[in-house]
Structure prediction request, 249 residues.
Amino acid sequence: MSGKQQLNRHNPRLGGRQQRGLSLIELMVGITVGMIVVAAASLMMTTQLKEHKLLVLETQLQQDLRAAGDLMLKDMRRAGFWAMPQNGVWAEGSFAAPASNPYANVSTTGDAQSGKLEYQYSRHFDERDNSFAYTNPEDSAVDTNERFGFKLDDGVLKIRLGTAWQPLTDPATLTVTSFQVNLQSQNLALQEFCDAPCPAGTVCPSLQVRQVNITLVGQAVHDSSVVRKVQLSGRIRNDGVVGSCPVPA
Prediction:
């Protein structure tokens, strides 16, 4: 074997033996690239999980606030219900003044962050059983179990049932940070329906159309950065009557 052939045998670049496997530098480069890919994938997965958790909290918070608001509006619309409304209307031939609706009062109190809404409606029904006897007749008086309302108490929205206030929202998942309630009234004159003009110094009758506007702001317990706001409005179905027509002479 010549000297040139022996030189090529020990030098792969000159046509000798080929390299088998990876060199240390190539292995380190491959590991570095792989770690970068794994880190990017892990970061993307972590971001997606965080966004998914945030979306779940936002959805839950929105649904809880919406459910509480819908329940409030559904019950609030019954304010002023009276089982004997015919007693509040003057009838021809009757010299008695019409009675006032004992359940008509709707009040709002509290500040801009912690409002309070209170109202009443009748739970009596002037119905007759098979023996034509009245069952649970209307007494035209606001009883204890006929008082209702909503208020914010230490981050929990509560509903009034008689003398007790029951939680309406779950403090383990939701903190209500603001409950604003605004009562708007529009008076429609009814003087033209009176047989006699209203004497000076008296209040002429008017129909009071009332609407309640509610604003709820909630914060997720598990993530204080998740905050949602819900605004609802609804009209009270039982309009109030202010004043009365003078009794015909």
